[in-house]
Specification:
Layout (H helix, E strand, L loop, with lengths): L22 E9 L2 E9 L6 E2 L2 H17 L1
Antiparallel strand pairs: 1-2, 2-3
Bound molecules: zinc ion.
């Protein structure tokens, strides 16, 4: 039996396509017509970006807060 690891922890992530470890990098995310720099994990080989649901929701709520404050 294999233990299931919780999503979004410090575990290493690998690209589904290439099998290489994903590396942290700054990605520009467009949201409601605005672009925001976000640090995400991406594949250095094919450019695939990993966005976990937890991370996406967290970042989007931050962006929404920033918009509401304006
Ligand atoms: Zn890849």
């Amino acid at each position: 039996m294999s233990e299931s690891l919780p999503i979004g922890t410090d575990q290493d992530w690998y690209c589904d396509n290439c099998g290489v470890p994903l590396a942290p990098g700054q990605i520009t995310v467009s949201y409601l017509g605005n672009a925001y720099p976000v640090n995400l994990l991406r594949c250095p080989n094919c450019g695939l970006v990993l966005v976990t649901e937890e991370l996406a929701l967290g970042k989007m709520s931050e962006v929404e807060k920033a918009l509401e404050d304006k």
